[in-house]
Amino acid sequence: MKASSGILLLAFTAVASALENGLMRTPPMGWMAWERFRCNVDCENDPKNCISERLFMDMADRLAEDGWRELGYDHVMIDDCWTSMQRDKDGLLQPDPKRFPRGIAKLAQYVHERGLKLGIYADFGTHTCGGYPGTTFDKIETDAQTFADWKVDYLKFDGCYSSAEDQEKGYPLMSKALNATGRYIGYSCSWPAYQGGLPPNINYTLLGEICNLWRNYDDIEDSWTSVLSIVDWFFTNQDQLQPVAGPGHWNDPDMLIIGNFGLSPDQSRSQMALWAIMAAPLIMSNDLRTLTSDARNILQNKAIIAISQDPLGIQGRRLLQEKSRIEVYWRPLASSASALVFFSRRTDMPYRYHCSLDKLNYTAGLYEMYDVFTGEVLSLPSHTTPFTVSINPSGVVMWYIYPVARPTQTGEERKYPSVRRKLRVSTVRRGQRNGEHHLFL
Ligand SMILES: *[C@@H]1O[C@H](CO)[C@@H](O)[C@H](O)[C@H]1NC(C)=O
Ligand SMILES: *[C@@H]1O[C@H](CO)[C@@H](O)[C@H](O)[C@H]1NC(C)=O
Ligand SMILES: *[C@@H]1O[C@H](CO)[C@@H](O)[C@H](O)[C@H]1NC(C)=O
């Protein structure tokens, strides 16, 4: 456990030079096929759910018509299993003609007409993970150009069937090749996930220079066990992973599975809250055509989305792991606000957790807290005032918290020098909330 000033300083030692394509200044949002629809290519028997242009057009319609796009969910992403088993006679990737009869360029047009962006998938290696044609060294420039010609906006570049040595050359080469096309294409690198995800095997400084986001760890599955294993890995390794994220270059703990079969409503709220704390991409993999209103409400929660999309782009951290199996997570936000998540790993009953902002090393002052799930606004007269939150088993309480008054003692100034500089901390008076903290008002 680091001292809080250590936490804050760490939070600001961000990677200096990032990929200069100007994309993804906040974590990308959208929808991706993989976790829910996998490599289902059986369009004869399962036409609604197979990997085909129809699936992506359906999802584009839903994103555009059901309020998702306005909230920032603006990418529709193809994953594996979209190509033919062979490249065409000129060596180009081609979509399966039965499942994508109109081709990817037409699909991109359809998606663009709805104000959305199209993501596509390729694999650096001899084959994709699903056994389709891969992108070997000699095909990197060709494939980048193909995607640009089709007006694709995003590439997930997987890493099945390539060696660590080749990946070290191949991932930077694809970054250069995408840039050379002249089209702005977001670049998601699976490289770290194939090499253990941690330094020294992974050089995150380099990743930040060549990729907009990267998968660090295992694929998510439709289960709470899977979500927990991802949360455990990312926060156990937060000292290495947290500083490397920032505008234009993000850690990617994988897709949101909210709306599928594996998570209870409380667990769904937990995934959403913890992904926002992690400044993770919010890429859903579910069936937007049949989503329940419970799932929709969680995924469309404006306050959580605003926290996820905070302009400072600082990834959050785990602050506390209590013996009671309650954990506290924190993310600093613009306008001297922050987000707190109280997470229960208990399996018995709602737990009444006692805490104070002081214990979490908040500086002296008056604070208000907006409970992002209930909409309640709470205020605390002092940072030392004890409070109690009731947290459901495998659930969370999440607050957006902002100061309504600050003492101006110089002692306080010295306590968080970097934060005060960056966040422009000033005395915010009651009633100014509309101006300074307009997050979701
Ligand atoms: C608060 O700061 C103290 C002293 O620097 C440190 O020991 C403690 O771990 C910090 N607590 C949290 C929750 O960050
Ligand atoms: C290519 O990279 C340069 C900087 O190296 C950047 O200025 C330019 O915007 C990039 N272009 C594209 C299309 O990504
Ligand atoms: C990591 O990559 C950066 C940027 O390319 C480079 O300057 C640095 O030397 C590399 N670090 C290691 C340990 O290889």
TrEMBL record:
Residues 313-395 form the Alpha galactosidase A C-terminal domain. Its main location: other. Homodimer. PROSITE patterns: ALPHA_GALACTOSIDASE (PS00512). This is Alpha-galactosidase. It comes from the Eukaryota. Its EC number is 3.2.1.-. InterPro entries: Aldolase_TIM (IPR013785), GH (IPR017853), Glyco_hydro_27 (IPR002241), Glyco_hydro_27/36_CS (IPR000111), Glyco_hydro_b (IPR013780), Melibiase/NAGA_C (IPR035373). Keywords: Disulfide bond, Glycoprotein, Glycosidase, Hydrolase, Lipid metabolism, Lysosome, Signal.
